[in-house]
Amino acid sequence: MPNRAYASIWVRDFNEMNMLTHFEHFLATLPLTSTPPAFTGMTVRALDFAETPLEEYDLRGHLPTPEEIVKLTKEHCSSDVCFEIAARWDLWIRDRETSSWKKQPEHLEISCYGPDYDQGVCAESGHFMADLGFEHLFTGHAGLLSGDAERVAEPQHPEEARFLMWMSQPQNLREYQEKTRENIQKLMGWMRAVEEALPVERFRLWSEGEENFEARLDEILDLR
């Protein structure tokens, strides 16, 4: 399975009393898709991930605001709950069949962890954690966007070989860099919006495949 990328955000003095206020402000920062539905679902959990969800909401037939979403959670608000939001945001995707680029809605999964949920998982994962989608949407494939030809991975099967052959054309590689950079800029712009909306203590961008995901993003942004 392809590696995934994440964002973890910790908020100063986060507690049960201000949890929903911060949650609403956080949801208001999401760079949601311009194609409805933007929010597609919400799950409310208690105690830990092994427990059956308390509530599950299908939001696809609605156009809820962050305020309306938070209203659904109020009766369940406590220090040991987790709110999971399924949303969508627009990213550049390369179609493998046509080799063309399309900006299209991609899944964005948001979790808000109460201070005592799952034995304090927020200490490691953040008070808010976002599953951003596939790592390669921000880092590219095979090390192509590293700026170092020696770091480009050898193809492991014919599809990878065809991809690398396509990217051997300077104009195709340049477009790949530009679209990937736009995805990164959207992510970074969102993190700036979060820092403006909340008393952020710190945030961390990380992924399953990169030892230092943030450094890779900076490296790609600096490529010319």
How would you explain this protein's 3D organization?
This protein has one domain. It is built from seven helices and seven strands. The protein starts with a strand and ends with a helix. Strands 3-2-4-5-6-1-7 form a seven-stranded antiparallel beta sheet. Helix 1 packs antiparallel against helix 2. By secondary structure, it is α+β, with helices and mostly antiparallel strands. 33% of the residues lie in helices and 28% in strands.
Topology (elements, then pairings):
Layout (H helix, E strand, L loop, with lengths): L3 E8 L7 H10 L10 E8 L8 E4 L7 H8 L7 E14 L6 E13 L8 H4 L2 E7 L1 H4 L18 H10 L2 H28 L2 E8 L5 H10 L2
Antiparallel strand pairs: 1-6, 1-7, 2-3, 2-4, 4-5, 5-6
Helix pairs in contact: 1-2
